[in-house]
Structures are given as C-alpha cells and as structure tokens.
Amino acid sequence: MGDLVIFAAGEVAQKDLSIFAPDSPPAEHIRSLSLLVFAITGFIFLVVEGVLLYSIWRFRRPAAGQPEPPQVYGSKSIEIAWTAAPTLIVFILVLVITRTLWQVERPTPLPTAGDQALFVTVVGHQWWWEYVYEHYDGRKLGFVTANELHVPVSTDGTPRPVYLTLKSADVCHSFWVPKLAGKTDLIPGHTNSMWFQTKKLGLFVGQCAEYCGTQHANMLLRVNVDASEDFDRWLEHEAAAAADRPPMREAKAAFLGLSCVNCHRVRGTPARGTYGPDLTHLASRQTLASGMVPNTPDNLRDWLADPQQVKPGCLMPAFGLTDQQRSQVLRYLNSLD
Ligand code: CUA
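A: This is the predicted complex of the input protein with dinuclear copper ion.
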C-alpha cells in the first residue's frame, strides 16, 4: 500500500490542507473570518491576562510593616463597560458570521442550470464519493463517476464556478477541501449546497470531515482542476459508454456473469448496479478505494482478492473468485479507460 495521499509523477499537487492558504472565494471568506475572530479573541486574551498579572503584582501580600493596598468594591462604569463590550463583540461576530455563511453556501445572484458553470451532485457513501455531473455551461450531462472530481479552471475572462449539491446515501459525511471551501455536511434526507471556483490548476486534496464509521479517515477527496480544453476532453470521454474492444469480449462476459454487476455499473453493458462506485472509466482514475492507493494493476488485484485487507470494514466483501475468474475480471477492468 502506498501513502495515504498519492500523486502521480509530474502532477501539480495543491496538497496543502491549510485553511490559511485559500485558492477559492469561499475559502478566502472563511480565512478572513478566522483572522477576525483570532484578532478579537487574541485581544481579549491579552487584556484579561494583562489585568490578571497586574492584579497579582499590585495586590500581592505586603511585606511586614507595609500598608495593605487599597481594596476596590464596585464600579458602575467598569460594570457597564464589561457588559456592553462583549455584547457589541457578539453582535459584530453574529453579523460577520451570517454574511460568511451566506457567501460560502451560495453566491449572489443565485445560479441557474443555464449559467456558465459546472453543476455536480455529490452523494456520500460509506466510504466513497459518488459524483453525478448534471450541467455544464447550460448543457445537460447526466453521467455518474466516483471518487475523483474533475472541474474546469476559472480565468478572469471566463470564471467557471462549481456548484455542488450534497446528499448522503447512508450516514452523515462532510465534504472538505480546505483550499477550495469550508466543510459542508452531507446529511441523509436533507440536501445541502456549496460552491467554489479557482484559478489554480492541479490536484486539490481533501477529506471527509464528519465521522462516518470505520473507514471515515480513508474517505479521501481529490479535486482535479483542469485547463478548459482538458476538461472538455475529460467530459466528453467520461460521458461516453465504456470501451468495448473485441479482444476483451471473453473477459467482459466473465465479469458480467459475476455478482459484481449487482453493485456496480459499467455504462453500455448490462451491469447496472448503483450500490457501489460506477466503473465505466475505472482504469482512467488515479486511485482506488476513494484515494487510498494508486490505481495500478497490482493494487486492483489485491483489492479484488480481498477488499477487507486494503480497507477493513468496507462494504465490498471478498468474493472468493477463482484465479481464472479474477484474471478475467482484472483484464476487463483494466481495459475500462
Ligand atoms: Cu464520510 Cu467521514
């Protein structure tokens, strides 16, 4: 098994998970809010600690024969000040936080499906991400992929915001790519939304940020920001049905004859399961098991042999395939580029 977060050679990786290095407006709003809160709370800390230290020194026990320091009882002006100041601070924070929440959830004006933008529905599963590509630049898409989100880059000339609709198939999850936006929960029976847009190309990584079971820590996020023409190419390829090459007919028949098809979909074939990740273009993905290991033939073989060894607790069992069946399934899956 490789490192938790894997980068292909030469890949530009925005692997920084700091909330203080934003590359997208919602993440910038959150950083500004954090800095404001740190400044206010830091100031309060300094004042309180300063008064505390001063009092310890000023009202210390006097040396023998020295007079006691004067004791102060009650002060109307001080009491008014320490009631009014916190009220004012809380009031300011409520206003600023409300504005930030608004900016992070949806920009104004509200987007519509016809906009120059990408709309994706994200469905959280134990423990992987389903992406339903809905609309792009006013065009209806409607295909499904898993675990690796591709989005177009934004430029000054053509900003391409990405609007995510967040849902859950089982328990609560949270979509969090720190450099792009804040955490937003995916809640069963409730739809949330968020957005981001970035001018930086490359891979942005993130992590499910709401405890969702055994493999919560391995529910990793990968957002590839592609140049506009690369994204168009990716979109066209991804929307197409699975490759159907004559030399793979036998391997394909073996795959379709197994119970894999109950949970997985391969578009253009009778495999129409929706419980597990869509495998239509599996071989073109960089990683397996929601970003855990690089997508290599060896790792795919290990995964097929026993997913529980790679990702203990995951919902795919070991099927006890014969060597013959496993090599046929591997051949077929590796051909799904
Ligand atoms: Cu999904 Cu934690």
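Residues 25-58 form the longest helix (34 residues). The radius of gyration is 27 Å.
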